[in-house]
Amino acid sequence: MNRTTIVSQGRRVVMAACCALIGASALQSCKDDVLTGQPSYLGNSIYQRLQEDGNYNYTVRLIEDLDLAEVLNQTGSKTLFVADDKAYDAWFQNNDWNVSRYEDLNLSQKKLLLKNSMIDNAYLLELLGNTKGTPPSEGKAMRRKTSTHIYDSIQVLQPADMPNNPAWNALRARGKAVPVLKDETAAPMIHFLPSFMSYHNITAEDLSLLTNGHATSIQESWVNGKRVLPNYDENGNRVEGHDITCKNGYIHKVDGVIESSPNMAEIIRNLPEASIWSKILDRFSVPYRNVTATNDYQANKGKAAGADKDTVYNFRYLSNLSVGLKPVNTDEDKLIPSDEIGLLKFDPGWNQYIYRDDKDFDMHFDAGAMIVPTNAAMQNWWSPTGPGSDLYNEYGGDLDRVPLKTLAKLINVNMLTSFYESVPSNFQNVLNDAKESLGIKKEDIVKCYMGCNGVVYLVEPKDAAKPIFTPAEYASVVYPALAHSKTMNAIYWGIEELNFLPYLLAMDQHYSLLLPTNDAMKFYVDPYTYGLKEEATGTETPDIIEFYIDPRVAARSTQLKAWRWKSTIDADGRIVKNSSTDSIEVERDVIKKMMEDLVDQLIVVGDIESGYSYYKTKSGSIIKVNGSGSNLKVAGGWQVEHNTSIPVVNKYLKQNGKAYELEAQVPLGAEKSLVTVLNEHSEYKPFLNLLNSSYCDFLTQTLSNTYNCGGKDRGNQNFKLFDNYNYTVYVPGRKAIEDLQAAGKLPKWQELDETRIDSVSSPGEKIEISVIDSICTANNWFADAHAQSDADSTKVRTAVKNALTTIVDDFVRYHVHDHAIGIDMAPEDGVGPNYESMKRNPANGRFYPINATYTKSSLSVKDAKGKTHHVVTTPGLYNNIVREYWFQGNYTEKEQTARLFMGSNAMVHLLDDSGALMYADMKKWTVAVKEALIAAKVIK
Prior knowledge:
alpha+beta; 7-stranded mixed β-sheet; 6-stranded mixed β-sheet; 28 helices; 21% strand
């Protein structure tokens, strides 16, 4: 991209500011002799020494033309790196500025040549690597500020050269060139010194690669890409190379002309071999007005011809980290919609880039690095049949159409935060977004370019299957949501912002990821409103939630919003929005909890096309799959309950699994609780009666006096044994329970209520009878306890109740185990066939096991006694999906703050008539109660 450097003649205000800065710096003295090495002996000034030498006439002319002769002739503190006239003569024959003689240099170019080579303090070469401290830290510094000022590099940007994005399009439309600063911070000097390389274990091969084969040893010193001349020749004779002592500082000779100090963005922008990558990077560039520079520029009467006379702009890049360690997350005029913005890892145009800035660490310590593929490498990737064909074909081969969010992922994986951690000898430690090796090798490097804020590795990988280094996300099941930002940005927000992305980037897994489109995300049913019905008709009337990305919101973390609508569910399970009612905006905390739960239910570890009907999601919820190929359909528990399913409209085969696009609806967790399911089938009722008895305390409507169960207002109760996991419940049939009652091992139904209401002789009169008193009397437990008072009787009653509760609870506990399993359900790797029940063995503290094996047509259960039972396969009595919810907050007409706290999932099955599950021989309940009374010392 061609840019014209402004000729600064006549710009008195800018020059005055620069000279004032230089003058002030020149009067500084060294405050720390150990740090700077300022000697006690002072010779001639820097200016005099260069004049006397006779081989530095070009440098002397630069000093004089910039009115710095007096500054460099008086006492002060300066360090100057100089190239001799021979080096300048060679440079005039071949340079990027297209100048062939000294007289062709304009004022700005002269400033860059001199000031980029000068530090406003006096440093011996070996002490340049020291950083401030008491004592100074040796060998940790690689960068220092020079005498340059940001005004030294004002450029004029022509409309044709402006980057292609909405932020620049507005300026381009004016049809005028604009003055721009490459950054609002001055470009520092970058130096590789032996102490620094030794401290960070940088090898000679590293240095050779970084200098494109020019360096041979880490004992060499390099400054802005030029070698500092040694103090001894090849024969060991003493010569003047560096540490030339002057009364106002030091001179260090270098083997070539130090030009400007471009940042990494500039380097890439001016690399013809990387023009494709440069074009991508430019899409993140945004202009920001520089008020101070604008005021100075407007005060100057000698503006460049054709330049906009109003404003000076800074080049900035949309990024998470820019000047002042702050993000640039939008263009200044907000012309790029916020929902389309992608952020780079850091601002490649920030001259003084650093990832940390405090008293112990700052710009001096480190820089960055960028991996940039050649055009040839990009063309091998970006083609209809190349490794980038998914993206290429999606956007018709037009890189300008690819969303910034998608491209940011590509660039970011090639942006390396630390320079010294990513030198070639450390390439094996360079990781991608999945925390796996990026795969870059030394032989991939074509050339290195050292900038003021880091190194650019121009690369052309040898692996034809991997011509550029792409993020793992491109190969993952998340990719379709990333690539289709217009139609899937709501669900992608949930994946990225709620931290599911790292999980889904595991390349050693096989995932099935359900991806609802933005249209599908308009039909999420608020689980708190499950079960709401019109009293007259019985029609379901839950609230639906419409999720959407608000492009007006700049902060990514708050872009997802939602509206709440009333709705009805028709006979076919279709959700019908009641648009005649007003919508209500959903609170942020509620949105976050809903999305966390939703995304958790969209992830399946495994292949949902492996031939089974039921699969478990990451959250433990159950989905049902039917059909195949183009007729594939999926259903969450709610869809199963409503006899409906969701068609898959697109399928994407990726490296770590498959993604399935859904546009009709969102898979929803089941509505029914365990109590609801047990109450729907007469075969389940005896087990429900046990749960509802006076001697079972597993049903509740509140948790920790803080959370309410779903459907509480409609009388629902949750099962206490469920605790934010997934479970299997085996329901013993009526015969199994009644056989145990007949054998005296479980109390009979009339004995399972602590009290009952009986009629007495007077018509209409009823009286409460204490069943537990009758039990105690019939078994002589009052007498055995020598109960003489009400307090004595109460003690007996309490002990009897506790014992009966233990009997019933233990029976129930052994019919529940961790992990939901079912008939025709996909098996889980490393899970089963032995499962832990909810009943703990008091002898060893472990849970009694249940051995369960299941196939596509059966489920067999072997209990701890070795007896095998079978799940009945009568439709409606097995594979019943359950989900229970705990909510925090309120739901009223004026306040809808109820948000999900946690959910539990289960599969419920009826056992055959082989009996109930047994963990041990079951005693008669009266014997067990008496033993408990004796153990409690209630009776002897």
